[in-house]
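Tutorial sheet, problem 5. The two components below are modelled jointly, 513 residues in total.
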Amino acid sequence: MNNLVEIKNLTKTYHTKKEEVEAICNISLDIKEGEFIAIVGSSGCGKSTLLSILANLEEKTGGQITFNKKDFVIGYMLQNDCLLDWLTILDNATLGLDIQKNKTKENVDYVKKLLKTYDLDSFKDKYPKELSGGMKQRVALIRTLAIRPDILLLDEPFSALDYQTRLAVSDDVYKIIKKEKKTVIMVTHDLAEAISLADRVVVLSKRPCQIKKIYDIKLTNKSNPIENRKAKEFSDYYEKIWQNLDVVI
Amino acid sequence: MRKSGKISTLLSDKEKRFNLLAFITQISIIVIFLLSWEILTRLGVINTFVFSSPSLIIKTIKELFLTGHLVTHLTTTFLETAIAFVLGIVLGLLVALILYSFKFIAKVVDPFLTLINSLPKVALGPILIIWIGANTKSIIVMALLINLIVSIVTIYNGFLNIDENKIKLLKSFGATKGQILRKLIIPASYQTIVSSLKLNISMSLIGVIMGEFLVSKEGLGYLIMYGTQVFDLNLVMSGIFLLLIFSYILYKAISLLEKKLIKE
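Model answer (structure tokens):
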């Protein structure tokens, strides 16, 4: 498979009043088309910074990022759903299209189709406060998919949800992503989530973060995230990654 | 289900009785206050020359009405307040938008805003008269001085309290500064802006009455001031009474408007 994104020697340094803080130190990573990559690391290690740089929300200090496709579109999904209370679900889902002045009939129909496929059709004229947490997260994903991104960047997409909803929604989101055949980079601090969802898990060191190790996740009978947790290799990976994280309490 | 329904109506009955009792007590307080005022003045315990009396106030208002002055005074104060109110909201919103859009201006202006905000604006009254003249313009500027700063600060703080993540989301779609303002900042601050109306109307009225005290030929503030100067306490008390009713009606009207605007 082709490399969709190539990151070479990426560095990021923040300047505060007192000192220079090195957040990312020399990261190189290739992302293949259709791949699901999870990035794990201790909190504050700079993993979210990495996503922000990829999403063009922050400037990189050094290195190169190459997108091997013309008119590369990036979809970015944040921790909480960030739905706007005063817009209907359909308007929320087409927000990205609206901002990019791309709200053509064809695109809106595509969003409507997505809403229908993912059981939100009857809610499209309702407002966010009438939806459950899991449904809102699905709308947020559809809003991201609406601009037809070549890659999805998920920044701890489920961390605002309670544990049970989180399992169900990650299952949901995984199915949607696989069905729409999207390439994904997800940042998380939940190792079980990373192993059960991803094809590869990238472990980052403490700040300034570097790639410590990359695990190819090979599970027997790999299916959906909840089932994947039952695979016999699951706990092995968990153990290894956990040790690599060198968490200090 | 039926049982719980019964309990809830029982509760609301209790609540109704509680509210009714409170209402009756409120009315009684007013009646007792007015009656004892009236009786004490008739008995000569209280001097009507200094304290006036309810019947004299009613008589004075009636005279004012019959001579046509009442309507003039009321419309004058109302127009001044309305102009100051609208200007305050429009300018407040505009300045808040500028401060939000240009971080540098906000940074520079911040200490000055605090400085002006802490100054009792009444102190500027005499200067206004000299600069602008002894006319209605001075009164409106006075009211603006009082309501504008409050509006700016309230609306601007509303802007600042908007979820950073939502701004990040719009930026990730490549939104321009203008789009972020139009699609997010302004609609998200709708409630803040509407609630600032209530504060603004009280401030405008304070400013207008203050201004009328300093310069005016008509208006409720003028009525009170003129009454004091000629030592006609009936006129002063009537002015205060009219102002009380006037400000209450304005406040209620804005509250109603607020309820209507916020209800989706």
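Marking note: Chain A has a mean pLDDT of 86. Full credit if you identified this.
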